[in-house]
Every structure is written in C-alpha cells, then in structure tokens.
Amino acid sequence: MSQKFEMAITIDIDTGGTFTDGFFACNGEIKTVQVPTTPHDLTLCFLECIKAGAEAFAMTAQDLLYNADIVRFSNTIGTNTIIQRDGSKLGLIVTKGTEDHFPARADSGNSPLIDANMVIGIDEVISSGGVMEEAPDAESVLITAQTLIDQGARCLVVALANAEINPVNERAVRRIIKAEYPRDYLGSVPVFLSSDISTRSGLQQRMNTAVLNAYIHAKLARLLYKAGEDLRQREYRGTLFINHNNGTVARVAKTRAVNTYNSGPAAGLLGACEVGKSYGLNNIISTDMGGTSLDIAYACDGKPSYSLEPDVEGFSCNLPMLSIRALGTGGGSVASVDGSGVKVGPLSAGALPGPAAYNLGGSQPTVTDANLILGILDPEFFLGGSMPLHIDRARTIVDEVIARPLGLSVDQAAWLIKQQVDKDLGIAVSEAASHLNNGNDAVIVAYGGAGGLHACDIATAAGIRKIVMTPFSAIFSAYSSSLMEVGHIYYRRIDGPFNDSFDPKKLESAIAEMRCEADRDMRGEGFAEHELNYSLQLFIKNTGENREIRLDTQIDFYRQGDVLKDLIKRAETAIYPNGSDASCVLSSVACLVKASRVSQAVTELEKTRSHPDDAIKMRRRLFTGEDSIEVPVYDRSRLAYGHELAGPALIESDQTTLLLSQNWNMKIDPFNNAILTEK
C-alpha cells in the first residue's frame, strides 16, 4: 500500500523520437528527467520516465503516482504512424463520383494512406442546398461495407459530399453498418464519420482529416489505454490527460487521434508564449531542436501561430490547430556528401541505432557526432554522464563518409556539418520572422535537447540578436505541458451574412448546444460549472476570394449589442483591409472551454554575490573552423541571477549543452532564464 503525503504533485511527460522528457513538480520543488525513447513500445519509456522522476524525489513510483494530482502525456505516435505508413488498413465510403478525392499520397511521395481499391462510392440524392432527400440504400451500404471488410479493412471511414452541412446520410450509413456488426460482436469494425471530425467546408480537406484520424486511431488507442491501465496498476487514482494540438488536454476517452498530432510541439509553442509574456515580448519565434527534428513556430502580437487548414505530413486538413513547421534536422539527423558540400537530414538515426557515437550500431554520421568531434559535447558528460559517447566511433564514421570524400580533415568535416545545419535552420527562422509585424524585434525562445548547441549561430544566420533559454529548455515541451489546462472545443456551422442585419439568435442556439456539451464533458473531467472558462471563436469568410480568418471573443458577446457590432467591424476590416463593400459570411463558430488543475509557479531568485568564474568546471578545446581554442565550461546549476558571461564558452547541465558563440553574451535573470544577446 502506497503512503499518502500532503503535497501537490504534477507529472508531465513528452515522448519524442529520441528521448522521453519528464517535468515533475512537488510543492514548488521541480525535477526534470530524460530517458531514451523505446520506439517499439512507448509505454516502456513512459513508465521509465515516471520511475526516474520518482527517484529524483527519493520516492517510489507507486508513492509518486498515488499522490499525483494530474498526469499529462504527449507523444509522437500519430506523427510516426503517418510517416512510417504503418497505420490501420482502411476502407473509405464516399458519394459516388467523388472517389478521386481520397488521400492518394503526401507531398513527400510516400505510399498512400489508403489504396484506390479500398474506396467505394455509394448513391445518394442531394439537393442544391446540401439537404439529403433520400437516404442511402441499406442493402448497397452493407454490400459496400462487406466488400471493404473482405478486402482487409480494419475500420471504415464515411465521407459523403456536403456532410458538413447535413450529416444525416453519414449517420444513416453508420447506423446500417453497426446494426449488422454490433459492437459486442467480434467481427465489429469501427466506423468513423467525417462530419464527426469536422463540420468545416472543403470535401478534400474533410476527407483527409477523417482518414488521418482513422489511420492512427488504433495504434494510439492501444498505447493510451495501456498507459492508463499501467498507471492504475501502480496506484494512480486520477485521470490520464492527453495533450491536444489546440492547446488543451483531455482524458483518453474524449481524445480524437488527430488532435494528438504535433501536440508536444504545440505545448512548447504555448510555453514560449508564456515566457514572452513574462518579459512583455509580443514577437516570439520558438525553436525546438531535439534528436529528430527542429520545430519552428511563432507568436505575433502575443498570439500563437494558428492554421485553419493545417498541413499534416503533406495532407491538407480543415481541423484548426496550432501551426508548427517541422524540419528534419535534429541531433540524430544524418549528414551525407552533396556535391562539394554536405546535406543534413531529413533522414534521422533516431533513438536506435542513433548517432555513431552511441555505439549502438549507427553507421552514418549525424549532427551529434559532429558536435562531439568539435568539442561542443563532452563524451563523458552526455545527459549528465548517464550515456557516455564514443568519440573514436564518431571520428571514424565522419572520416569515412564525409571527410575523405571531400578531402577534409575530420574536424573540418564536422565543422562543415554544423555550418550547414546553422545555415539551413537560420533560413527557416528568417521565414518565420517574416510573419511577424516587426521581425526586427523578434526574440527566439530556444529549447529542445539540441537547441542550445545551435541557438546562437542559427540566430546569427537569421539576423536575430536575442535569445531566451529557460532552465527547462532540454525538456521544454514537458514543462510547457504543465501550463496547459483541461479543455474541449466544439464547432457549429452558421453560414450566414455577418453584417448589421445579423440576428444574434442564430448564435444563441448554437452556443447553448455547445455549452451543454461542454458542461457534460467537463463534469466527466471532474470540474463543476463554476470552475469553467468559456471563449468563442468566429470563423469569418469573404464572399469573393473565400479567404477565412478567426476572431476571438468572450462567450456571452451576443448579449452585448455593442460588442457584436465591434466584431462585425473587426471582421470587415480584417477581411477587406482596403475598404471593399463586399460582405462577410460567418461560416462557423467554436466554443472553447477550459479549467485549471494544480499548476506550479516559477519563483524569482535573489541576486547572487558569487562570481561567475566560480561556476567554471573545466576548460575544453573547441574547434572553430580554422583551429582549436580553449574555452571555459560552466556548470549551469551553479550559475545564478546576476551572473554574466561572454562567449565563446560552453554551459553544461545534466540534460543539455549551450554553446555561447563568439560575439554573444549571456546573463541569468531573476527567473533563472538565460538571456543571450549578440554583441
């Protein structure tokens, strides 16, 4: 029997392609851990991370879980399933004549998510207004379903034309199939409706979204339900909450698979926005560089980047989510010869076999191998010494694959790899800055296990002169997860002119329906109505170009005529900045409900009286392109508020290393954040 303690404990875990990060807080005391990701079974690294967090508090995993107030979890299984094309075999039922709209292939040229012979059209009669005048024939629906099942479909997706306006035929198809294959029969197959996933316009985008959701559903469901059961067996008494790409968390039973796509990077973006708020910064670029990729996002005027029609691994979707751009460049990215230079990524060595320096069978040079050769990484202190690196192995592979073919020394080849990474990512950061109102004032919030190794040189390449790095930068998405609230979002179609003649009663019924759903779902999450916070999102289109924007407001705006008029003016100005007389259309509305669990505040530090040299642990040779120089290596845990450093220097923690490049300065502020500025 586990022991009960009087304490507030939060557990946040983010599983990446290479490492699984944990952020644990107990009554204001914070512990962070990293363990290798186990790609064959993510529940193993999930539990190992919890075990490591418990050991950091000198507790058993059972005692930690028994006393935990909340466990939040984000993972990459959805993304990996799409990339690796190992999701469920699907059958797709569409309106006859729309069979060619199925998600054939991604922009990358990978194999299709669904084969053409697994797409069958059925007859339905549709009026010009989208109202279904005749239900699909039950016999033909059953023949279609049986054909797809006989051909190997493990679940069925129904995506009929105009179902976003009237879903009655999609629901009829599901009802017919489930009557023949009830849930309590072993032969039952899941049936997913596109209208349940999205009510927004765009048949192709709606079909893509529904297919993607179904494609990753089975693998994700197995993982999350097993993770929840593993927690219960270890005496966790609460709910396992799953991070969503709309900026909220919800229990497994109320999580759609597609909502977990990019949920870890989405958490990181929200965390970067919170960092920006603490300094009054409105133009933020977030860079999350881990072992597999670099995820870039931004906040303009304090609002995080958001996409109404996001691209999900090459497929255009119409389920709005926080907008993250993923680049295949991380610590495990493979370098290869490209003409007289090198190419880095998108191929990654992953967690297994990993970089050559891991000595686990990796036979290709990676970014980590290059940083080790250059002296940026300490082979005896990688991840605090828990995972020694083999520099001889790294040098051998870089020599064979890069140095000798290009006629370079091993050190020069490693430098060339790093330069290429910094150049490529600097261009990507510059492109993100172009979305800001004033890119010259942009500040980078850099994080990820490899973020500090390249932050200064990426910023220099992008023309940005200020960087913020928190003490949790190596596990920043897990830290950011701890800031996320429990919540849900609901959508309703309106499709009416949005002008002075607009009748607010059109919204009242939609809002009432969404409020009813929200209250019910949040009761299931353990919240009373008085604990809930509501907001409204209005999706506005113009009548000519079909361009769409989102406006945010409070939930009860329809009771305030002046507010409604202001929203109409805002919509017209945003859609028609040149003062056109064309009208706006309110296409749909969303209700977002949130509530807070236990949160952990970051306390401010007192200014230190010590000298920064007291934090120097050693000096190390660093190759800088032409020759090697000796630079100080600082212990990050001994740097405190008031300390100031000048580059070049290295700053090491148990989880990451920061390269303070030439012409860059660093100071520690009251929040224990590192503020880096170019001289």
Characterization of the model:
With 679 residues, the protein is α/β, with parallel strands linked by helices. It folds into six domains: 112 residues, ATPase, nucleotide binding domain (Nucleotidyltransferase, domain 5); 132 residues, Rossmann fold, CATH 3.40.50; 127 residues, 2-Layer Sandwich (Nucleotidyltransferase, domain 5), CATH 3.30.420; 87 residues, no CATH class; 111 residues, Dna Ligase, domain 1 (2-Layer Sandwich); 52 residues, no CATH class. The chain is built from 15 helices and 35 strands. The strands form eight sheets. Strands 3-2-1-4-11-12-25-28-26-27 form a ten-stranded mixed beta sheet. Strands 13, 14, 15, 20, 23, 24, 31, 34 and 35 form a nine-stranded mixed beta sheet that branches. The chain has a four-stranded parallel beta sheet with strand order 6-5-9-10, sandwiched between helices. Strand 26 and strand 27 form a beta hairpin. Helix 4 packs across helix 5, helix 9 crosses helix 11 and helix 10 packs across helix 11. The longest helix has 31 residues. The mean pLDDT is 89.
In short:
This protein is an alpha/beta fold. The protein contains 15 helices and 35 strands. A hairpin with a 4-residue loop joins strand 32 and strand 33 (657-660).
Rg from alpha-carbon coordinates:
26 Å
The count of helical stretches stands at 15
Strand neighbour order, sheet with most strands? 3-2-1-4-11-12-25-28-26-27
Q: What percentage of amino acids are in beta strands?
A: 25-35%
The largest sheet, given as strand count, sense and whether it forms a barrel, is: 10 strands, mixed
Number of domains: 6
Poorly predicted regions are: none
> What structural class should be given to the helix and strand makeup?
alpha/beta
CATH classification, class level of the largest domain: Alpha Beta
Tally of DSSP β-strands: 35
